[in-house]
């Protein structure tokens, strides 16, 4: 395991919020970090938003006026790696992670492995680019609360055609239901 003391991932951060967060840091640290409102002062977070690539926490040269690194060590987060990936696409989304160990610094090979895994997760979470206009129209109407019969009437097609459009969209979005596909497409900015 590459992060035995814990890790935090923010995948596909848009304007302010990630599409998905994975927080496997110690609960006591998360509670303390939140109570102290460390996020905006955290050198790892600041580095992650302003850089791409990978570095050890010990190599981050940003000031730490709130002592986030010192406080983290009190919770066994002694060594770490910060990884930030940005794909420079139209959505301008970034993914980043903070990985911790208590026993030793990360090796360059481990940091490279973490970077590749973060990049893989970032790309895996990318919104599909192959939704058709017809599928997007049907999803928009589902999002707006229209029923199948209403959608068919509005679009001037059969209910079977609407069902097929929604089936195709669900497959492309890896969604279980039409409502879930519509919510996903909306949150991804596709509709």
Write the layout of secondary structure elements.
Blueprint: E1 6-13, E2 18-23, H1 27-35, H2 43-50, E3 53-56, H3 68-74, E4 79-86, E5 94-101, H4 108-124, H5 133-143, H6 148-155, H7 159-173, H8 178-187
Antiparallel strand pairs: 1-2, 1-5, 3-4, 4-5
Description:
The protein has 191 residues and is α+β, with helices and mostly antiparallel strands. The chain is 45% helix and 18% strand. A five-stranded antiparallel β-sheet has the order 2-1-5-4-3, with helices on both faces. β4 (79-86) and β5 (94-101) form a beta hairpin. The radius of gyration is 21 Å and the shape is elongated. The model has no long low-confidence stretch (mean pLDDT 92).
Task: Offer a quick outline of the entry.
With 191 residues, this protein is α+β, with helices and mostly antiparallel strands. It has helices at 27-35, 43-50, 68-74, 108-124, 133-143, 148-155, 159-173, 178-187, and strands at residues 6-13, 18-23, 53-56, 79-86, 94-101.
